[in-house]
Amino acid sequence: MHGAAPQGGLLRTRTKALYSLGNVGNQLFRDAPMILLLYYLTSIVGIPPAIAGAAIFVPKVMIGALSDFTIGVVSDRNLHRFARRNWLLVGAALAPFAMIATFFVPNAQMSVQVGYVVVAFSFYMVTFASFSVPFLAHFSEISSDPQERTVLMAWKHAWTGAGLLLGSALVPWLIHELGADRGAYVTGAALLGGITAISLVTAWNAVRKVRVTVPLERDLSLRSLLSTLTFRPFRVLCLSAAAMTVAAGTCSAAMAFFITYNMGRSDALVQLGILVAIAGGVVMVVSPLWVALAKVLGKRNAYLVGALGHVITLIVWSNAGTGPIWVTYVCSACIGLFNSGWGLIALSLLTDAMAQARVETGRDTAGSFAAIWSIIEKAGIALGGTLVASSILAVGGFDSSAAKCGIAQSAEAVDAIRYAFGIVPAALMCIAALIIWRCVPARGGAALAH
Q1: Cβ-based neighbours of 287, under 8 Å, separated by 6 or more
Q2: How far is Cα of residue 236 from the mean position of the Cα atoms in its chain?
Q3: 90-99, 206-215, 431-440 — which is least confidently predicted?
Q4: Residue 420 within any structural domain of the chain
Q5: Is 129 a domain residue?
Q6: Helix, strand, or coil here: 427?
Q7: Which domain covers residue 275, as residue numbers?
Q8: Given this model, what pLDDT does residue 187 score?
Q9: DSSP label at 9?
């Protein structure tokens, strides 16, 4: 046992809120490269999109997958010696250095710049794994009640909105105000790293006295850890998450391009901040709505409402680039509303699967579940936000040299941006919704079908 509070009882609201606040840092590390890095490397540093995308994608997938799984396995195997929550302190110590290093690209030859990005971003992914995997796994351990885990996910998703406001609204505005040059991006990165550290320490402190039952079986074999992939409820969720995260990564990476070239805005970072602030504000307040909707409709149907609403909004928005600005703002609010729904329910189903596996096997492999989930999420976002988005731009003829000099792009390039921002992500989200519809029971929750 760790701590003093009963693991099976209800957690205090303060504990739920402060532990979930750790998701602010998680969201900042997730969004910074997705929203800013590709745009920064192509439009500010001047690296062609295909090369910049590859420099981000390789460490994000290869190093990210290796570090996620390593942290997951190590945290599972050492629960008796190193409490899972203590990994948050490790992440807090490394986060500021990793964030600053990623945007501190030297003014040198392109080969040197690309090599630097690969090394710095590899360190970034190791740091991200050190706290993101244990943070997610611990949600399934601090409460044994499925409904309370849904409430915990509501708190987590509410703090997602705060992370969006800070990382994707405030910091882009700050970068714009500081001149949108390399120094401005490094300053913004330093702020993001500091906020991440504070949020992780706060989360650790909130649960340091919460009692967690540690399973008697200590020597988890690699075979038993890999068996998480054979657990059907988890496998279904992973397939859906893969499609959804590729969609999210592609859309997010194309957003700054869409605002600049399809909407014709010279203040792209300011508008990006406004749009994300609107979406983030909505996410912060609508989480209770989705908790209630999941009670009435069941988790599966609530997920479908969120996913399909997101699809419709993306299609409308991607075809309204030159329309009135208020249409764009309304679309951003709808994205926040529907993103909150499918995101919250997906994570609630995930913690249900973790708890179900713990009951059926007698082993606590939540770290391995969280590691695999994190690998899929990061790889999906990387695939969408780098290779898919950059490939669509490259096929459309996007010219990074012209972008650096402020020269207009071709009509084909502008149309490619529209596909990357709305059409392709909408199609992928439909696939994710179909998987959930076909494979999760209508009242799916703690007892997902095998």
Answers
A1: 154, 155, 157, 158, 340, 344
A2: 19
A3: 206-215
A4: yes
A5: yes
A6: helix
A7: 13-205+221-439
A8: 92
A9: S
Quick one: the chain helix, strand, coil %, rounded to 5? 80, 0, 20
CATH of the domain at 199: 1.20.1250.20
Residue found by looking up tokens 């910049």 in the block: 52
CA-based torsion, 214, 215, 221, 225: positive or negative = negative
Task: Please give the C-alpha separations between residue 132 and each of 16, 90, 140, 366, in angstroms, as whole numbers.
Answer: 17, 11, 14, 13
Q: At 351, which helix (H) or strand (E)?
A: helix 325-361
Q: Where are the alpha helices (DSSP H) in 78-181?
A: 87-103, 110-139, 146-165, 171-177
User: How far from the centroid of its chain's Cα atoms is residue 37's Cα?
Assistant: 15
Place of tokens 């602010």: 24
362: left (phi over 0), alpha (psi -120 to 50) or beta: left
Work out the angle at residue 200's Cα, subtended by the Cα atoms of residues 197 and 203, and round it to the nearest 5 degrees. Answer: 150
Percent of the chain with pLDDT over 70: 88
What is the Cα–Cα distance from 414 to 398, expressed in whole angstroms?
A: 8
Mean pLDDT of 127-141: 85
Tokens of 32: 């910074």
Domain assignment present for residue 302? The answer is yes
| CA pair distance 332, 322, nearest whole angstrom | 15
pLDDT tens digit sequence for 4-37 = 343 445 778 888 889 888 889 988 888 777 778 8
Residue 286's pLDDT is 87
- Amino acid symbol at 370: A
Of 450, 445, 242, nearest to 361 by C-alpha is 450
* Sheet strands (E) in 226-344: none
E runs forming strands in 162-262: none
- Domain total in the chain: 1
Q: Which of 125-129, 320-324, 376-380: highest mean pLDDT?
A: 125-129
Phi, psi of 116 (to 5 degrees): -65, -45
Helix/strand number for the chain, H first, E second? 20, 0
The pair of three-digit structure tokens given for residue 19, joined into one six-digit string = 């532990």
Tokens read off for 72: 């997951």
Return mean pLDDT, the chain: 82
- Tell me the C-alpha distance between 163 and 276, whole Å: 10
Would residue 58 count as lying in a domain? yes
